[in-house]
Automatic annotation (TrEMBL):
PANTHER family the record matches: HYDROLASE, PUTATIVE (AFU_ORTHOLOGUE AFUA_2G14860)-RELATED, MONOACYLGLYCEROL LIPASE
Enzyme class: hydrolase
Protein name (database record): 2-hydroxy-6-ketonona-2,4-dienedioic acid hydrolase
UniProt lineage: Bacteria, Bacillati, Actinomycetota, Actinomycetes, Mycobacteriales
Pfam families: Abhydrolase_1 (PF00561)
One GO biological process term: acylglycerol catabolic process
Classification via InterPro entries: AB_hydrolase_1 (IPR000073), AB_hydrolase_fold (IPR029058), AB_hydrolase_sf (IPR050266)
UniProt keyword Hydrolase, yes or no: yes
Single GO term (MF): 4,5-9,10-diseco-3-hydroxy-5,9,17-trioxoandrosta-1(10),2-diene-4-oate hydrolase activity
Cellular component GO terms held in the UniProt record: membrane
SUPFAM superfamilies (alphabetical): alpha/beta-Hydrolases
Keywords assigned by UniProt, alphabetized: Hydrolase
Length: 312
C-alpha cells in the first residue's frame, strides 16, 4: 500500500531535490480530493422501506440525474463526475439495493428488485421523471427500468452495461474475484477486484480500494455478496437478460458508452446493444476498462453532458 507523505516529508523531499518522489506523492488519488470544492452531501433516505445511502450534489430544483454503479460496487464509482453534473442536475449517486451501506434484503437479487428500489428512490426524492445513467449492473437496471417504466425516464445512458449476454468465463471471473474479496477483504483481494475493472493496471487505486475494503468488512457482507452474485448464476441470469424486443421498446433517448478495454465484453457487443435501441447514440472511449467515468472523467463528463443536455 502506498504511503501518503505528510507536508513535512514533502518539504524535506523538495529541499533535497528528490522531485520524483514528491511528484508521486502529489499524484496520489483520493476520493476526498475528488470531492473537494464540491458542495455535496452524503446521507441516507427511506426508499420504500430500504435505508438507502447516497451522495448528492446540485440544486434539488434542477432536473434529477441518478447514477448507478456495478455489481459489488458503491456510490464512490462516480466521485469524479459529481462536480461537472451538479452544475446542471440534481445529481444522485446511490448505493444500490444490497450494496455498499444500503440495506441488505437477505435474498438473491434479480434485476426486478433493483428496478423496484430505483423507482422507490425516485419517489423518495420527489422525482416523477429522471435521467438514469448506469455502469455495468447499473446499466442493466437502467435499461430494464426504461423498458418497464418509460414514463419515468427522460434520458438513458448505458455505460459498459450488462444484461445483453451470458459469457460463462466472465461470469465465473466476476464470482471468483468478488467472493474472494468479500470472504477475505485483504488489501490484495480487494485491489485485485478493482484492478480487474481498469485498463491501466500500473496504478494501485489505493483510495478506492480502501473505500471498498471498508464496505466489504461490514458484518454479514459475505452473505450480501452471495445475493449480489445471483445474476452470475446461469439460470437466474437467463430469465433476467434483455433481448431484442426489450431493447427495441426503449423510447427514451439513449447513449451507449463502451470502451476499448472492457473486461466483460468487446466493442462489438456494445455496438450490438446500441443497434437494437431506436435512435441510440454509440460512443467508444479508448484507453479505458469497465469504469470509463473514473479512468477518463474529462472525456466521459463531456460526452455524458453533451448527450444529457441535448447538445449533440
Amino acid at each position: 500500500m502506498s504511503k501518503l507523505l505528510t507536508n513535512k516529508e514533502n518539504n524535506i523531499l523538495a529541499l533535497s531535490g528528490e522531485g520524483t518522489m514528491a511528484s508521486t506523492a502529489a499524484e496520489f488519488e483520493s476520493v476526498w480530493s475528488d470531492l473537494q470544492g464540491i458542495e455535496f452531501s452524503q446521507g441516507y433516505l427511506d426508499a420504500g422501506g430500504v435505508r438507502t445511502r447516497y451522495l448528492h450534489a446540485g440544486d434539488r430544483s434542477l432536473p434529477t440525474l441518478v447514477l448507478l454503479h456495478g455489481s459489488g460496487g458503491h456510490a464512490e464509482a462516480y466521485v469524479r463526475n459529481l462536480a461537472a453534473h451538479a452544475e446542471h442536475f440534481s445529481t444522485w449517486s446511490i448505493d444500490m439495493l444490497g450494496h455498499g451501506y444500503t440495506d441488505k434484503p437477505g435474498h438473491p437479487l434479480e434485476v426486478a428488485h433493483y428496478v423496484g428500489h430505483l423507482m422507490s428512490f425516485l419517489d423518495a426524492v420527489g422525482a416523477h421523471r429522471a435521467h438514469i445513467s448506469g455502469e455495468s449492473l447499473g446499466g442493466w437496471v437502467a435499461a430494464r427500468a426504461a423498458v418497464d417504466h418509460p414514463e419515468r425516464i427522460d434520458r438513458l445512458v448505458l455505460n459498459t452495461a450488462g444484461g445483453s449476454q451470458a459469457d460463462p468465463e466472465v461470469m465465473k471471473r466476476i464470482v471468483t474475484l468478488s467472493m474472494a474479496a468479500a470472504e477475505n477483504p485483504s488489501w490484495e483481494t480487494v485491489q485485485a477486484r478493482i484492478k480487474w475493472l481498469m485498463a491501466d493496471k500500473s496504478k494501485d487505486y489505493d483510495d478506492i480500494v480502501a473505500s471498498r475494503q471498508r464496505v466489504y468488512r461490514q458484518p454479514g457482507f459475505v452473505s450480501a455478496m452471495s445475493d449480489i452474485m445471483a445474476l452470475q448464476d446461469p439460470e437466474i441470469r437467463a430469465r433476467n437478460l434483455l433481448g431484442e424486443n426489450d431493447y427495441g421498446s426503449i423510447a427514451a433517448p439513449t447513449l451507449v458508452v463502451w470502451t476499448s478495454d472492457d473486461p466483460t465484453a468487446d466493442v462489438a457487443e456494445g455496438r450490438r446493444i446500441a443497434s437494437m435501441i431506436p435512435g441510440a447514440r454509440f460512443e467508444v472511449m479508448p484507453g479505458c476498462g469497465h469504469w470509463p467515468q473514473y479512468e477518463d472523467p474529462k472525456t466521459f463528463n463531456r460526452l455524458h453532458l453533451d448527450f444529457l443536455l441535448g447538445r449533440q
